[in-house]
Amino acid sequence: MTIDQAIDSLGLGAFQWRLLAICGLTWAADAMEVLLMGFALPGISAAFGLERGSPQATWLLTATFAGMLVGAWLWGYLADRLGRRTVFLITVSLGVVFGFAGAFAPGLEWLLLARFLTGFAIGGTLPVDYSMMAEFVPTPWRGRFLVYLESFWALGTVLVAALAWWVSTAFDPAVGWRYLLAFAALPGLIGLIARFGIPDSPRSLLARGQERQARGALERVARANGGTLPELPLARPVAGARVTLSRLFQGLLGRRTGLLALVWFGLSLGYYGIFSWLPSFLRAQGLDLGAVYRTTLLLALAQVPGYLLAAFLVEKVGRRATLTGFLAVSALSAYLFLGAQTPGAVLLTSAGLSFALLGAWGALYAYTPELFPTSLRSTGMGFVSGVARLASVISPSVGALLLTGELPIALTVFALALAVAAACAWAIGVETRGRALPEVTA
């Protein structure tokens, strides 16, 4: 009995829904940490006397992404060597510690360090969460559940926008940012406690030769779902080569890795380039701080139908077509945003852009883990996620053009990046819908 046959025979039940809730909670917490500086920047600028668009402000927006770049590559590799659950727990623990530390930073340098270390920690949760989810969900539901997990990003965006709105009304901005950073770390702490009840991935355990532990994990799934694990020995996977980053660039897998890296880079450049600066851009248009946060909250809500549509389409028309379509619409929406002349038009076009970009993220997170073999799944997810963080490091500098009046240049760069990403997504040439993971990666 293969792991796929075992997981499919146990069906979809309470275990997968509980796993989705636990991973989703920490996913929402990560979203809050990633987007946090865009909301905290006005208060930090007031506290430390930073000018709008200054290099220090750009560094603050970049620090978390720089940490995620390093963390994604390291933690993804370690998850394939040491196991998903171990990295699962370590990264969230460190994210909570460093997130709280930022709230007590005595100076700008300490704050930059705390944000870099926070990014280093949460950079590992992103690839590991998706590897875990892909390996525990039955084949017919896998794509939909991976999009469901990504949709918790919208929840995190809504929470951080609402929290920033409340803090702006309750505290002076020069002090309120500290409360914002401290409160944003709390969901990660709750997620950490919940994660102790999740076993390691049976697929990962079996790939590392731990058959007894793999069967034990499957039995926990069976008990939670009210089923019975068949009394058949687990089929050992074909022994692969040692886990190394170089294996990602060999043969057919190398082509996939290269194209996926370009997709992740283009989507990340467009998304973070626009949305990391959007609160400051709206502030520069004359909106008061409360109105900025309310507008951002509405844009976060616009992400929800994008996720829902992506969850439907990845199982109806396939991952590849869904991802390519959302990326193409995102590129077009960037130019519609450029042409907006009234506050209502700005809100409408930015909501459309939010809808399309997050639909693309949902499809990409469903597609990517299915394209890597089990022994390299977290390593591969970590690598392409790290490439996305490289784009995230660059994007605030490009996005700063939004504040200096160079809106056409900035949005042209983002639209081109999204268009190239769409072409690369289609060029991958593989559809994973309804296929067992070993079939896709053989």
UniProtKB/TrEMBL annotation:
<feature type="transmembrane region" description="Helical">
    <location>
        <begin position="257"/>
        <end position="279"/>
    </location>
</feature>
<feature type="transmembrane region" description="Helical">
    <location>
        <begin position="19"/>
        <end position="44"/>
    </location>
</feature>
<keyword id="KW-0472">Membrane</keyword>
<feature type="transmembrane region" description="Helical">
    <location>
        <begin position="344"/>
        <end position="367"/>
    </location>
</feature>
<feature type="transmembrane region" description="Helical">
    <location>
        <begin position="379"/>
        <end position="403"/>
    </location>
</feature>
<feature type="transmembrane region" description="Helical">
    <location>
        <begin position="112"/>
        <end position="133"/>
    </location>
</feature>
<keyword id="KW-1133">Transmembrane helix</keyword>
<dbReference type="InterPro" id="IPR005828">
    <property type="entry name" value="MFS_sugar_transport-like"/>
</dbReference>
<keyword id="KW-0812">Transmembrane</keyword>
<feature type="transmembrane region" description="Helical">
    <location>
        <begin position="56"/>
        <end position="75"/>
    </location>
</feature>
<dbReference type="InterPro" id="IPR036259">
    <property type="entry name" value="MFS_trans_sf"/>
</dbReference>
<feature type="transmembrane region" description="Helical">
    <location>
        <begin position="87"/>
        <end position="106"/>
    </location>
</feature>
<dbReference type="GO" id="GO:0016020">
    <property type="term" value="C:membrane"/>
</dbReference>
<feature type="transmembrane region" description="Helical">
    <location>
        <begin position="179"/>
        <end position="198"/>
    </location>
</feature>
<keyword id="KW-0813">Transport</keyword>
<dbReference type="Pfam" id="PF00083">
    <property type="entry name" value="Sugar_tr"/>
</dbReference>
<feature type="transmembrane region" description="Helical">
    <location>
        <begin position="321"/>
        <end position="338"/>
    </location>
</feature>
<dbReference type="InterPro" id="IPR020846">
    <property type="entry name" value="MFS_dom"/>
</dbReference>
<dbReference type="InterPro" id="IPR005829">
    <property type="entry name" value="Sugar_transporter_CS"/>
</dbReference>
<feature type="transmembrane region" description="Helical">
    <location>
        <begin position="291"/>
        <end position="314"/>
    </location>
</feature>
<feature type="transmembrane region" description="Helical">
    <location>
        <begin position="145"/>
        <end position="167"/>
    </location>
</feature>
<protein>
    <submittedName>
        <fullName>MFS transporter, putative metabolite:H+ symporter</fullName>
    </submittedName>
</protein>
<feature type="transmembrane region" description="Helical">
    <location>
        <begin position="409"/>
        <end position="428"/>
    </location>
</feature>
<dbReference type="GO" id="GO:0022857">
    <property type="term" value="F:transmembrane transporter activity"/>
</dbReference>
<feature type="domain" description="Major facilitator superfamily (MFS) profile">
    <location>
        <begin position="19"/>
        <end position="433"/>
    </location>
</feature>
